[in-house]
Amino acid sequence: MNHFQQQRSHVWHIFSGLLFLVIFFPCSSGAAPASDEFIRGYAAAILQRDFQITVEKLNVQSGVIYIRGLEAPDEVRDRMKSSLSSIEGVSQVFVVEDGKITPTDGKSDIATEVNVFLPRDLLFKSLLADPRWPHFSVSYQQYQQNSQLERVGSTSFGETFSFYRFGGPWNSQMEVGLQAGVFSIFDMDADSLDLVNADYYVAIPLSLKKDNFSAMARIFHQSSHLGDEYLLSGQAQERINLSYEGFGTLLSYNFPLGFRIYGGGGYLFDRDPSDLRPWLAQSGLEFRSSEAWLGGALRPIVALDLQNFEEGDWDTNVSLRAGVQLENPVFLSRKLQILIEYYNGSSPNGQFYARDPVEFIGLGFHFFYD
């Protein structure tokens, strides 16, 4: 058994240990699925902050939010429903007209449609351990037994934006948006901190959400470039013009206590070089505690992302991250995550894509706005 096979077998022991420490400790202190009272408090804060609506007009029954006696234009109602629907555990949001009897079975013929331009949140939440999910981040990575790199700085700049949200099939919500990001690594041992590789990514995603289930289909493009200083240093292998388009799908389901599983796959087309093998698969498990500490400002996190590429002979690439999420209880869409990172597998960086084995441990700061 070689070094990398041994490390892959050890990663499951690492993950299980982190999962026990980070998950079961908060669970023992009373973590529970989102209750109606929790949803009501969360929704009340949003309504008071963004719409100046008092809590007396709000009721929650079995994950369904009812707002009574609301006098507001249709566009305000749409924004309100969009914001409240993003709360974990919320299945539906109804605006109940005066004089109507509030239903108790979670059904109503007076629910407003969801048609929102530039909604403030996302239906498909970010994948926390995916090395190529567009967001803002900076990390320090210590490479293990690598002939080219040892101390590496990694940065990413990007985000996912939703353009338009609308009603979908089966009483779901759907939205179309844009993903864009730049992923770069730097040689921290070089005198001028040489840029080694930069990948440029853009995608058009179509997302769907129904209760705890969400899905995303996207068409994407990625191109890769070696840094000039790294090329001049003489360390670089022969440069390849790596560029491709692709289509991918992801399915996700949220479980109680903050657990989430996801999986999907994709196919690359318009590939350069043309002999790049096209199929890929992805799956993962995340835990984001349903109970925040320190007055709602700190939340434990563990995330595992697994990716397999036909180009890499279907070997599993393991990305594991664990740490805490800092959040503002007033602006809940803004999150800062401080995470210990571990990666073992084929390099995710374009010029070394699915060819060179990489193993590193690091510390990262990640910003999300979903």
TrEMBL record:
<protein>
    <recommendedName>
        <fullName>DUF1207 domain-containing protein</fullName>
    </recommendedName>
</protein>
<dbReference type="Pfam" id="PF06727">
    <property type="entry name" value="DUF1207"/>
</dbReference>
<dbReference type="InterPro" id="IPR009599">
    <property type="entry name" value="DUF1207"/>
</dbReference>
